[in-house]
From TrEMBL:
GO terms for molecular function: DNA binding; GTP binding; GTPase activity; U3 snoRNA binding. It is found in: Nucleus, Nucleolus. Its main location: nucleus. The keyword NAD does not apply. This is Pre-rRNA-processing protein TSR1 homolog. Required during maturation of the 40S ribosomal subunit in the nucleolus. GO terms for biological process: endonucleolytic cleavage of tricistronic rRNA transcript (SSU-rRNA, 5.8S rRNA, LSU-rRNA); maturation of SSU-rRNA from tricistronic rRNA transcript (SSU-rRNA, 5.8S rRNA, LSU-rRNA). It comes from the Eukaryota. Belongs to the TRAFAC class translation factor GTPase superfamily. Bms1-like GTPase family. TSR1 subfamily. Residues 184-315 form the ApaG domain. SUPFAM superfamilies: ApaG-like, YccV-like.
């Protein structure tokens, strides 16, 4: 089935109010003007069609033919006149952006080919859209078919007669030229007219396929401006099926977005300048970009940047510099930038710091970008050729098919500006569905209760989507907040400013006045209030569910039970051997060899094997940073003392790193294997574990034994359906508020003063509007892969820093295998050879969204650990921790064997008897009976064991992440280039 959109009117046009014409032009070849599109044309044939008009207010003078039904959705079909017309070719270019003039399309041949026959400039016009006129010209309409179809005859009125070609052509193509039904409906002053046409029939695989086309017309009957955003059809068939088809977008919309960016109707083109080498002279590069004599420059006093207004090109840019030493600033600016301008060094291109910055930007998602090299004139003439070849190879590897622009003269800077304005914009999905803003100005108004919290007034240009005052906004790095009001101050960067006579030329700060000022400085500027928040419609800031403790099935303990608990605590006291001089308080913390770990350690799921892990996380860092840090700590003491402390600290750090590395290697060689404790029964130690017949097929209830934190989170019945519904509402419904390109001031309430302090320090202030439910907490799952430049051992539940879409936060994640099964095995380490799923508690974010994982060193630097994307928001994802108990065959028979060292008492053997056994060589079996009292057991297998084989028993337990979400991420210290670390390491080692 083919669909065609044609005769689409201009959304701004409104048809003139003309007196109703009841006469029908039975005689063809009448010259006319179209009342909506305004083109000239000539009538070929009139058609009597059945009009199904759902607009009861529309006047239809023709008589009723038949009733289609009595339901609310069915209307009566009435006979209405439509005309087949030729369009003047001189008027086609003026309506090509508003309509499609190829209204007639049908199958050229009735064979198996898919060739289509199209007639350009042939349209169907309703009777009320005809404005007749007369002309004395013999050829009044310029069309390639006019002289083939018609000839001039002054004795006729109108003075044209049909040739034989026209009659033969119509008789041959009559089935697909005639229209029979017209459907029309008006909604909110938008009238939609659909005309179906039969195109023909083809035979495909012994069946008949009937082809139809549709002419769809949209008319704006109101004076209010309407914008057509997308094409979306729902087609019902007689078989009861529903087909949803989305068009490729509105004709000219991509071009319109490109033209609006940087124009007077759109936001300024935001260009973030990123120098990728420490030797790049950023100030000189920015000065060259300001060299256009006809442009006006408005410098930013707070940050290193400026606004460039070019009335000659009708463009305006805002340039902001992002230094690679500030990781958060680079990533935040890249989230909102229209274009990233990478400035390269002519010799090396980028250094290690710039390469690290590029890795982070590529993982987050690159908008449109351009490459510029500055400082070629400073390179000796003999080395310029070699430097150009070296730089070209590096760029080809990192930026394939990218063009390098020199930036050394004013003419070259002008060419670069033209390229920035003309290049195609790349879209980042996570920001296309949200409104976002980069703050131009900010003002903090303290509240009456406290000076530390108040209202933050942020001014800037709206980008992405329309901003609604009732939605929530997320200030990147600071949290979610509500808005109380949106103002519309004058645009400070208008392309048509009135400049005072005494101001200086370009290169200096210019005071640009508003258009409403005519040489007189007003005392106060009138600021319009666009919207005020409605309390009933405003989104709530509630992020967690307040659990009701009475909803549980467990009853409150009685007084007798409380007394029994107190007595049991008293009976637990026992005498232990402690070192001399130990107090009773200290002795209470000494764990006897026969005791198991505390209940809290068992709940943590990972501490049962590694009790010393917490201490190893505190002082972990790389070797060269440990040496530098140690030097700073020991400078004020004597030389001999410093040497002793140096050796002592070095041994301690190396021991911790070695222990961590050993654990990772043991987990790779003996995955999930643990030793059975000899001083504690295995049935007590592993009481929370269970055996499974098959890890893949055995059932596991996702709602079983949920932790208390699950009562605080939100869960969707069907997250995918909710996500599609939210996105569909964004596309279909028109949001009220500040449109894209408006300069607005947002009043954000209950904001801490730390947000304003960071803005005053020159850090970018970036805001994103939140979609429904995105402020609520849930369980997020990310698919990540280790970054190639990092090989540090990362254990599960170590604190990492997440950059997810427009958010960043800290959390201690769990790792699991990425598979399509309903259960996923827990991984104790972030492995470098496979993609893993990271699970944390975090606010809901609708995918797609990228994620970057960083680990903070002891000196404050952030290392990129892994990159990936958001997989799902699913608390029902089952993470299974596996423990493997191993035993050794003591005596081997044909299909039986005596196994020892798996258990050490008879009761444990009987307890784990139902669990299936397996061996490393592929044998399967089960426990038959215990032998003796020392844990020996008789086992039966499906074959004879080898003497070097190992008997294994798998136990499983579901684990959950810990609630470690922290939205406040410390600012990283400036990056330290690796080239500067090598000499420091060599000096220390000497």
């Amino acid at each position: 089935m083919a669909r065609q959109l044609c005769a689409q009117p201009h959304p701004h046009a409104s048809p003139p109010q003309l007196p109703l014409r009841t006469e029908v032009y039975d005689s063809p070849f009448q010259l006319f003007l179209h009342s909506v599109f305004g083109y000239r044309g000539i009538v070929l044939f009139p058609w009597q069609a059945r009009l199904y008009d759902r607009d009861v207010t529309s006047p239809v003078p023709e008589k009723s033919e038949s009733a289609a039904g009595h339901g609310s959705k069915e209307v009566k079909g009435k006979t209405h006149t439509y005309y087949q017309v030729l369009i003047d070719a001189r008027d086609c270019p003026h309506i090509s952006q508003r309509s499609q003039t190829e209204a007639v399309t049908f199958l050229a041949n009735h064979d198996d080919s898919r060739a289509l026959y199209a007639i350009p400039g042939l349209d169907y016009v309703s009777h009320e859209d005809i404005l007749p006129y007369s002309s004395t010209d013999q050829v009044p309409i310029q069309h390639e078919l006019f002289e083939r179809f018609l000839m001039y005859d002054q004795t006729k009125v109108p003075p044209f007669v049909a040739r034989d070609t026209l009659c033969a052509w119509q008789e041959k193509n009559h089935p697909w030229l005639e229209l029979s039904d017209v459907h029309r409906e008006t909604t909110e002053n938008i009238r939609v007219t659909v005309i179906p046409f039969y195109m023909g029939m083809r035979e495909a695989q012994n069946s008949h396929v009937y082809w139809w086309r549709y002419c769809i017309r949209l008319e704006n009957l109101d004076n209010e401006v309407v914008q057509l955003r997308e094409r979306h059809w729902r087609i019902f068939s007689l078989s009861g099926t529903l087909e949803t088809v989305r068009g490729r977008g509105v004709v000219g919309r991509v071009l319109a977005e490109k033209r609006n960016l940087g124009s007077k109707d759109g936001p300024p083109h935001l260009v973030v300048v990123v120098p990728l080498h420490a030797g790049v002279a950023t100030h000189d590069a920015l000065r060259l970009l300001q060299s256009d004599e006809s442009a006006l420059v408005r410098k930013d006093e707070r940050a290193e940047g400026f606004v460039l207004l070019c009335p000659r090109f009708k463009q305006r840019w805002r340039f902001v510099t992002a230094h690679v030493g500030n990781l958060h600033a680079v990533l935040d600016l890249a989230k909102v930038a229209d274009t990233l301008l990478f400035v390269l060094d002519p010799l090396d291109g980028w250094d290690s710091t710039g390469d690290y910055c590029l890795s982070c930007l590529f993982a987050q998602g690159l908008p449109s970008y351009a490459l510029a090299v500055h400082g070629v004139a400073d390179v000796p003439q003999k080395k310029q050729t070699d430097a150009k070849k070296k730089l070209g190879k590096a760029i080809e590897k990192r930026f394939p098919e990218a063009k390098l622009f020199p930036l050394n003269t004013e003419q070259e800077s002008l060419l670069l500006l033209r390229h920035l304005a003309a290049q195609k914009q790349r879209h980042l999905t996570f920001r296309d569905r949200r409104a976002y803003l980069l703050a131009q100005e900010a003002e903090f108004v303290p509240s009456h209760d406290s000076d530390l919290v108040g209202t933050l007034k942020v001014s800037g240009f709206v980008r992405g989507r329309t901003l609604n005052v009732n939605s929530l906004v997320h200030i990147v790095g600071h949290g979610d907040f509500q808005m109380t009001q949106v103002d519309a101050p004058p645009d400070p960067f208008s392309l048509n400013p009135r400049v005072a006579k005494d101001q200086q030329r370009k290169g200096q700060d210019m005071e640009i006045q508003d258009d409403s000022i005519n040489g007189v400085v007003e005392m106060e500027e009138v600021i319009k209030v666009l919207m005020k928040a409605a309390p009933r419609r405003q989104e709530s800031l509630q992020s967690e569910v307040i659990p009701d403790p009475m909803e549980g099935e467990q009853t409150w303990p009685t007084e007798e039970e409380l007394k029994e608990a107190e007595e049991s605590l008293k009976e637990r006291r026992k005498v232990v051997k402690v070192p001399k001089g130990t107090s009773s308080y200290q002795a209470a913390w000494i764990v006897d060899d026969g005791e198991d770990g505390s209940e809290e350690e068992e709940e943590n799921n990972m501490e049962d094997e590694d009790l010393m892990e917490e201490a190893s996380q505190v002082g972990e860092s790389s070797e060269e940073e440990e040496l530098v840090e140690e030097e700073c700590e020991t400078m004020a003491v004597a030389e001999s003392t410093r040497d002793d402390l140096y050796d002592e600290k070095l041994d301690e750090d190396e021991e911790q790193m070695l222990e961590k590395y050993t654990q990772e290697r043991l987990d790779q060689m003996f995955p999930d294997e643990v030793d059975t404790p000899r001083n504690l029964p295995a049935r007590v130690r592993f009481q929370k574990y269970r055996g499974l017949k098959s890890f893949r097929t055995s059932p596991w209830d996702p709602k079983e034994n949920l932790p208390r934190d699950y009562a605080r989170i939100f869960q969707f019945q069907d997250f995918s359906r909710t996500r599609k519904h939210v996105f569909r509402q964004i596309e279909k419904e028109e949001t009220e508020g500040a449109a894209v390109g408006w300069y607005v001031t947002l009043h954000i309430c209950s904001v801490p003063i730390s947000v304003m302090e960071s803005f005053r320090q020159g850090l970018p202030l970036v805001l994103f509007s939140l979609l429904p439910h995105e402020q609520k907490m849930s369980v997020l799952n990310f698919v990540v892969r280790r970054h190639l430049g990092n090989n540090e051992t990362v254990k599960a539940k170590e604190e990492l820093i997440f950059h997810c879409g427009f958010r960043r936060f800290r959390a201690c994640p769990l790792y699991s295998q990425h598979s399509s099964a309903d259960k996923h095995k827990l991984e104790r380490f972030l492995r470098p050879d496979a993609a893993l799923v990271v699970t944390v508690y975090a606010p809901i974010t609708f995918p797609p969204a990228s994620v970057l994982l960083f680990k903070q060193r002891s000196n404050g630097m952030h290392d990129l650990i892994a990159t990936g994307f958001l997989l799902s928001v699913d608390p029902d994802r089952i993470l299974i921790k596996r423990l493997v108990l191993s035993g050794h065959p003591f005596k081997i028979f044909s299909k039986t064997a005596v196994v020892r060292y798996m258990f050490f008492n008879r009761e444990d053997v009987l307890w784990f008897k139902p669990v299936e056994l397996r061996t490393k060589w592929g044998r399967r079996g089960h426990i038959t009976e215990p032998l003796g009292t020392h844990g020996h057991m008789k086992c039966h297998f499906d074959g004879q064991l080898k003497s070097q084989d190992t008997v294994l028993l798998n136990l499983y337990k579901r684990v959950f992440p810990k609630w470690t979400y922290d939205p406040h991420v410390p600012e990283p210290v400036p990056w330290v280039r690796s080239e500067q670390q090598l000499p420091m390491q060599e000096v220390e080692m000497e």
